[in-house]
Amino acid sequence: AQSVTQPDIHITVSEGASLELRCNYSYGATPYLFWYVQSPGQGLQLLLKYFSGDTLVQGIKGFEAEFKRSQSSFNLRKPSVHWSDAAEYFCAVRDTNSGKSTFGDGTTLTVKP
Amino acid sequence: DAGVIQSPRHEVTEMGQEVTLRCKPISGHDYLFWYRQTMMRGLELLIYFNNNVPIDDSGMPEDRFSAKMPNASFSTLKIQPSEPRDSAVYFCAVAEDAFKNEQYFGPGTRLTVT
How close A99 comes to chain B (CA, Å)? Predict the structure, then answer.
């Protein structure tokens, strides 16, 4: 069965600092991978996705993620965080046969002024 | 398009009552998913439909839960009878396909069962 681990429950960074949110997955082959962001009281919004090809993918709002097969990781990065990035971030793996998604438990990002 | 519309946004009910959550999907998005989000269990897939037909309901926790999609414009998730442990945020999401496309989430319904 597929699974997703986001090791960091809560991360605090200063505005303007760089950010990396970790995501590790367990899946038998190369899955489809996604990062979503959830603001308070809102549904999830897609930041970026990876299916195949270039292992560095660019997303919206200046985010990028790198797929590393050897580490079963798909970490999310942003070079300079803005206060509006404060939210909860979810990594998800999607089974390529069934289309079912499994989400990590999320990482809450706090941005200090 | 207004996006995925869910109603009500908040629901408070007493244990034992029937609860119906509603979802109006985005036109042309043939896959519809119902998720439940809690602090303890995170975001869980309950059931999903393709072209109004339930494809996988293995995530539905108990027989008290049922979901229908009578047409492409409407879906419901019903809990009867409701219990306090059903308290959660319930999301409806849609996609053009189940695999590579983005899932568009509604704003959710926050259910509190007292």
Answer: 5
CA distances from B101 to A4, A33, A99, A100, B29 (A): 19, 11, 10, 12, 10
- Residues belonging to chain B with any Cβ–Cβ distance to chain A shorter than 8 Å: 4, 31, 42-43, 45, 48, 56, 91, 93, 97-100, 102-103, 105-108
Q: Which of B84, B70, B63, B68 is nearest to B20 (CA)?
A: B68
Q: Which of B97, B98, B105 sits opposite A44 (nearest CB)?
A: B105
A22 φ, ψ (degrees, to nearest 5): -90, 145
In angstroms, the CA A92 to CA A111 distance is 23
Is the Cα torsion angle B38, B43, B48, B51 positive or negative in sign? positive
Pairing of strands A10-14, A107-112: parallel
Tell me the per-residue pLDDT of A41-82, one tens digit each, with 9 for 90 and over. Answer: 888 999 999 998 899 999 999 999 999 999 999 999 999 999
Residue indicated by tokens 């995530």: B59
